[in-house]
Every structure is written in C-alpha cells, then in structure tokens.
C-alpha cells in the first residue's frame, strides 16, 4: 500500500515538472517572436483611445512619490491619459503626496474612497475608480510600481491591434532584486513565472492570467462583468476566469515592462504569498462549483491548472515527503527507495535546467551567482511554498465557513533605492 501511495505522489509531481518544461519551451519561443509585429502594429496607433491608470493606495507614503514620478513620464498623449490615485483609508501621508503631484500635473488626480467601500480592499478601491472615470481603456498598477516609459503605450497597442483581446498583460521585474537573499529568490521566481508560465501558456494555448499590476483592460468588458469581485483576495485571477467566459482572450505582451518592489523579509513575504495562495484557492473552489456551466474550454483548462498546482501537486509533494520520512524510522513496507532517489535527482536536474534556460532570456540574470542561488532555492525557497500553501488552504476554508469580510492585505513597503524602471 505504501508503494502505491508513493507512486501516486511521484506521478503527480512529475506531471507538473514535465508540464512546466513544456511551458518553458513555449515561453522561449514567444520570447523569440513577440516583437516581430510591433512595426506593423505601430501604424494603427495614430488615433489612440483614452486611458485611465488606476493606482489603489492604502498607506503607501513610502513608495507613492517615486511611483507617481514614473507615471508623470509615461509616453502617451496627455490629453488622452489620466492617472487616478485611489486613496483608500490611508492614515499616513499618501493622500498629501499624491495631491502635490495632482497640483503639478493636470492628468493626475486623487480620489478618496467612501462608505461602504472605504477600507474594504483592493477590489473595492478599483470599483470606486471605475465608477469615477470614463476612459475607454483601464490600466492597473500597484502603488509600488515604476513602469518603463513606454509600458502603457505597449499595453494599449496590444488591445488596438487585437479586437478579440479583452486585456493585455505586460511583464514585471524586481527592482530590489539584489537587496537580500529572499529578493534574489523572488527575482528568479518572477522571471520564471513570466516567461515559463505566462509566455508558455500564451504560446501553446492562447491563455494568460491577469496579474495584479501592469495590465490594460477594455472598460466595456469591466462594465459588462460588473467590475471586480470584492470577495476575492486574488481579484486578478478571478477576473481572468470571467473574462474568458465572455468569449475573449487575454494577450501576453512582455514589451510592456514595469519594475516592482518585492518583500525583503520573510514575515512580509509570508503575508503576501499567503494572500496570493488563498486568493487562487478561492478562485478554484468558486468556479469548480460552476464547472458544468462554464462556456469556454480555455477556462476549464486554466481551472484544472490552478487545481493541479494548489491541490494535487502539493498533495503529491507532501505525501511523498511524509512517506519517505516515516520509512526512515518505521518499516512501512516502502520498497522504492532506490527508485525514489533516482527520480529525485532527475527532478532536481530538470528544475535546474528549466530555471537556468528561462533566466538566459534576461541577459543580466545569467551568471554564476544566480546558478548557486537556483540550487539553494530548490532546497529552501521551494520547500517553504509547501508549508505556505497548506497553511493558506486552512485559512481559506475557515473563511468560507465563517463568512469573514475581505480587508486590505497590503504588502509592507521599503524605501526605494533605485529609479531603474522609471526611465
């Protein structure tokens, strides 16, 4: 019986590893080809649509000034651009700093959330801005983001040239990657997610997940969907599913780049990633209950991907680890020890190969230091995710039974040391 359970666990683990290798190949192909249509697409950008950039902000005084400085430099006709800072129940100087920029730049303005949406979370803040604006395209950035000058232009370009696209998603880079060992791990994780997951899924299946930042979406789609789901911790993933169910797709266009700040301490990382995991678990549980009423096959595929990632894959990892450890102290009849070691070594080499190939896309990241960080990452950072996902699932199940309200789960910010992305 122990052998059967162990083989089931190995099967689940290897399915995910091979699938990510498949995504890595697709992401690399997308990297080689995504810039080719830009010259042709540029011809349709003579009369661009109006754009509203939403920046939800709750106690963001540490970062909001540099973020708005980057926004003021965006390449886009200023008579068709507005930057809306959504000051949501801040108790620091977020509102005052944003107001100073609004006085200096006529295309920047600040709105304050009011009851019943005040202090209820990111989704409520975004819905407030949606009701207070009229632009054809909505772009969303987190308050710690410094988009590159052409970012919004490229996001809009993707929509103008693709009528079937409801949204365009860019890529994000880590602005504080060199600060701590943790931010180095996150930097590697971010590059791999962008290219291995987003690029591969777009190349092979024309499926992309909306992130929490650096994306553009048509206002008509948002209004048709009734805005953002205020119960969702991962409002971006939840919105993705509903967009696909309308019959549209979401384009991944990594020419649009933003730089964002990542957690520099384990405490902040744990809170942020727990929110992400809980949010994605909520989406899976919400839409699996509507599985047979969903219209689009691409949604079913995406739901299965998230279900496999946050439930089956981690179940397989935990099961294999538990069986292996128990067998070290008690004889449970596990006879696959040598096979397990061989498969573990192969899995490690596959992980190492996938990550290093993905890092090669970003020329500055392919170095000896990152090679050693990838090895260390497998034995530390990747294992931390296992514990976090289990903890998140327990919290989300508790929330579902208690009916706990969604509040701001804001990531703690650190003083920025660079304006790398703003130029």
UniProtKB/TrEMBL annotation:
The chain crosses the membrane at residues 6-24, 303-329, 341-359, 371-394. The keyword ATP-binding does not apply. Keywords: Glycosyltransferase, Membrane, Transferase, Transmembrane, Transmembrane helix. It holds the Pfam family Glyco_tranf_2_3. InterPro entries: Nucleotide-diphossugar_trans (IPR029044). Belongs to the glycosyltransferase 2 family. This is Glycosyltransferase family 2 protein.
């Amino acid at each position: 019986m122990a052998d059967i359970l162990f083989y089931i666990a190995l099967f689940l683990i290897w399915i995910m590893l091979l699938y990510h290798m498949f995504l890595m190949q697709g992401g690399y192909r997308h990297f080689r080809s995504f810039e080719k249509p830009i010259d042709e697409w540029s011809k349709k950008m003579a009369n661009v649509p109006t754009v509203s950039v939403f920046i939800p902000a709750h106690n963001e005084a540490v970062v909001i000034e540099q973020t708005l400085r980057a926004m003021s430099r965006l390449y886009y006709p200023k008579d068709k651009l507005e930057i809306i800072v959504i000051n949501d129940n801040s108790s620091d100087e977020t509102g005052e700093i944003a107001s100073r920029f609004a006085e200096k730049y006529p295309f920047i303005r600040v709105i304050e959330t009011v009851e019943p949406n005040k202090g209820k979370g990111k989704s409520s803040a975004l819905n407030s801005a949606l009701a207070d604006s009229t632009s054809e395209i909505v772009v969303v950035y987190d308050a710690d983001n410094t988009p590159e000058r052409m970012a919004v232009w490229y996001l809009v370009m993707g929509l103008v040239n693709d009528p079937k696209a409801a949204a365009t998603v860019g890529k994000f880079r880590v602005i504080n990657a060199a600060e701590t060992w943790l931010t180095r791990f996150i930097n590697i994780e971010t590059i791999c997610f962008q290219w291995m997951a987003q690029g591969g899924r777009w190349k092979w299946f024309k499926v992309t997940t909306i992130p929490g930042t650096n994306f553009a979406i048509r206002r008509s789609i948002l209004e048709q969907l009734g805005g953002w789901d205020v119960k969702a911790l991962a409002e971006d993933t939840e919105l993705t599913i509903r967009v696909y169910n309308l019959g549209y797709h979401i384009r991944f266009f990594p020419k649009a780049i933003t730089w964002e700040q990542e957690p520099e301490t384990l405490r902040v990382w744990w809170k942020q990633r727990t929110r992400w995991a809980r949010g994605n678990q909520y989406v899976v549980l919400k839409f699996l209950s509507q599985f047979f009423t969903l219209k689009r096959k691409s949604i079913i595929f995406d739901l299965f991907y998230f279900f496999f990632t946050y439930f089956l894959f981690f179940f397989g990892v935990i099961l294999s680890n538990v069986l292996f450890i128990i067998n070290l102290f008690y004889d449970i009849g596990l006879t696959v020890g040598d096979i397990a070691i061989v498969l573990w070594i192969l899995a490690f080499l596959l992980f190492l190969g996938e990550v290093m190939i993905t890092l090669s896309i970003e020329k500055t990241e392919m170095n000896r230091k990152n090679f050693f960080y990838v090895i260390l990452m497998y034995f530390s950072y990747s294992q931390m995710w296992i514990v976090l996902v289990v903890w998140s699932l327990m919290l989300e199940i508790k929330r579902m039974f208690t009916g706990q309200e969604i509040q701001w789960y804001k990531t703690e910010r650190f003083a920025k040391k660079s304006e790398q992305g703003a130029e």
